[in-house]
TrEMBL record:
Residue ranges constituting the G-protein coupled receptors family 1 profile domain according to the UniProt record: 32-293
Designated name of the protein: G-protein coupled receptors family 1 profile domain-containing protein
Subcellular location: Membrane
Pfam families per the UniProt record, alphabetical: 7tm_1
InterPro entries named in the record: GPCR_Rhodpsn (IPR000276), GPCR_Rhodpsn_7TM (IPR017452)
CC terms in the record's Gene Ontology section: plasma membrane
Amino acid sequence: MSSPSLSYSLSNIQLQLERYVYSLWIILGVPGCILDIAIFSRQRLRKISCCNYFLAASINNLVTLFVGVLPVMYSIDHPDLLTTSLWFCKIRGYLFQICLMLSRWFVAFACIDRYAQSSTNVRLRNFANIRMSYRSIVGIIVVWTIICSHRMIFYEIKGNICGIITNTGAALYHSLYVLIGGGVLPAAAMITCALFIRRNLNFKRQRRQTSTVADTEHQRQQKSLDQQILKLLFIQSFFYILLTTPQLINLIYSTISSTIPNRTTDRLAIDKIIAFLAELMLYVFPVASFYLYTLTARAFQQELLKILRLIFNRLTGRRPIQVGSLNHTLSTHNRQGPIMHLSPARRLTEYQHQ
């Protein structure tokens, strides 16, 4: 009895990875993304313009997991809608591409926001405000919704493949725009902003050393919070570049290999699992972002504890102590004078004296 062919073995490996790894992605990623959204929605963090990009990225990460992972998990034990329904093939590919582009550009604009905030140029610092962050987020969504629309036009189904297959020009355009718009440009923006932020912070540190004016407690707390947000941003940028690089390399490889005629079945199977592994890497950050944030930023940990405490109080029926109300009660008692508690024997003695 002959051993299974290479193509069959690789196909079986991919099936098992889809079954178990994708299930793990959903179990860990969905609660993590929901907690990310809850934390970045907190008033303390929403006052920082950069955190609005984090909030938008967290919402996008949740959508990415649903659009990217759930259809694949469904196809394990059911007919694959990607290869049986042309409209599903087009819509899923369109939405998935938008999500991937949004995630990269939200991080890139967060880097630009922090660079503007660290600048000594007043006009440039005006970019780092909450209203501008909302406008930028809407603009990013609109731009990539339009740019990715070619997927709705040129995506097709051939055999067991959903993609741009027969139109060589559209396939070349797709490869170039993903490589440049989804790889080179956002990565260059992140790296460049990181270098400029470091330069600006060094300049500010030198100015503080020569200044005789001490920071107030509020200013020190705000600087500490800004430093933690900046730390989150650098971590996010590093992992995005690291985890999207395999997909970009595979995109270049697949574009070149598509010009090679008469590829063997084993060669096609190898190319397929390489593309699958590259796509698998794209989900790592949406799954792991919450855990990275929790491990690296104290402000994130503090907001998480507040949310968990609030949930616990709601479940147990406890009401949190209102510090303001307690202080008001104490001050009212102080204005009314001291409250004296007399023992029964002392009250009887005073009554007899009367």
